[in-house]
Amino acid sequence: MKKIILNTAITANLIIILAMLVTGFADLLDPRSWPIMATAGYAFPIFVLANFGMIVVWMFISKKHLLIPFLGFVVCYVPVMQFFPVHASSEVPLGALKVITFNTWGFGSQQENTSEMPKDEIRKRMLQYIADEDAHIVCLQEASFTAALAADIDSIIKPKMPYFDTCKIGGGTTVMIMSKYPVKKREIIKYESKGNISAAFFLDVNGKELIVVNNHLETNAFSKEEKSQFRDMVKGDMEGSEIKTESKFVLRKLGTAAAIRAPQADAVASFIRMHKGRSMIVCGDFNDIPISYARRTIAKDLVDCYIATAKGPGFTYHRNGMYVRIDNVMCTDDLEPYSFRVDKKCNLSDHYPVVGWVKWHRR
User: Fold this and answer.
1) Are residues 179 and 203 in contact, defined by beta-carbon separation less than 8 angstroms?
2) pLDDT tens across 173-207, in order?
């Protein structure tokens, strides 16, 4: 009987590790060819937790087999660190630039009746949060630009960050930059989209050029009703057959959106390669998780600031039962990132801001 239990546990642990490998390296798949398999990274945390569970199991039945789950974490070290980076806090050096990326959800204009606070008040509080953070560079997405917003920026933001610029295509989303430094020019990164956008802003930072690429990639486009259904599934308010149907629907939706995002990510990565050797920060709402084609493609020649300096999963989207990190800050290797974090004290949007510092290496 003991041998049967031992063999069963070994088999289960090996299956879990295989699942970690398949889901943890799903970002190697192009979603245009593998739309469903490329979304397998969403399941990776489940198998990581299961592997942790096997450590507990082996503590009780055979401590010498603890090597199996530990080897699992070794072979999956890269995706584990992508999802769950673990870094000690570090002191931010003098001269570092404080950077924020934040999807504002239209500064309150897109609220789905989740707040009793007037939308004007939400907008003012968001801007006050940004002003209080006293960052050097702030990149905003879904930053619907209105006369009221412009007036509030003049009164709340400009005393600390006198420069700002916006970019928008047609009736789509707006990306905005606020900065302590002059914005010399901007350039739209061209790709096919009905309303999403990536724009490069060229800043003069005390005589040094810094290119800041602000992105809002293709959304997963869940309707209000679809979000509600997903929330019900997560809460366990569905029957077995309903869960199966809903799961298939969600996977198809995620796969379709990932396939649309792929050429957008390719275009951003191409822009980065074209400007190789120049200082750059790339940030924004990628609408995709740490293990995804979009994040891997854009991060290829960059340092992922959260993964390099933060600790914990750092969920940035936090509504409707969906808790994922889809907002990113990356930089070229001539910049050193410090102490990036997800700032949960600002909960006025469906996203939390990502905050941290970068500094040029001494040459």
Assistant:
1) yes
2) 999 999 999 999 999 999 999 889 999 999 999 99
The set of residues, in sequence order, having a beta carbon less than 8 Å from that of 177 and lying 6+ positions away, is 137, 138, 139, 140, 164, 165, 166, 183, 201, 212, 214
Q: Is the dihedral of CA 13, 17, 22, 24 positive or negative?
A: positive
- Residue 323, beta-bridge partner list: 318
**Cβ atoms of residues 199 and 187 within 8 Å:** yes
What whole-number distance in Å separates Cα of residue 160 and Cα of residue 68?
54
Task: Find out whether 36 and 92 touch, Cβ atoms under 8 Å.
Answer: no
CB 232 within 8 A of CB 238: yes
**Could you report the per-residue pLDDT of 279-328, keeping only the tens digit for each?**
999 999 999 999 999 999 999 999 999 999 999 999 999 987 789 999 99
Helix axes 67-75, 44-61, angle to 10 degrees: 160
User: Residue for token digits 């951003």?
Assistant: 268
HSE, side-chain direction, 13 A CA sphere, residue 237? 7
Cβ-Cβ contacts under 8 Å for 253 (sequence gap 6 or more) = 220, 221, 222, 226
- What type of residue is 240? G
* Cα-based distances in Å from 126 to 113, 132, 285, 349, 357: 17, 10, 17, 9, 20
The pLDDT assigned to 113 comes to: 47
Alpha-carbon span 28 to 224, nearest angstrom? 31
Q: Could you tell me if 104 and 141 are in contact, meaning their C-beta atoms sit under 8 angstroms apart? A: yes
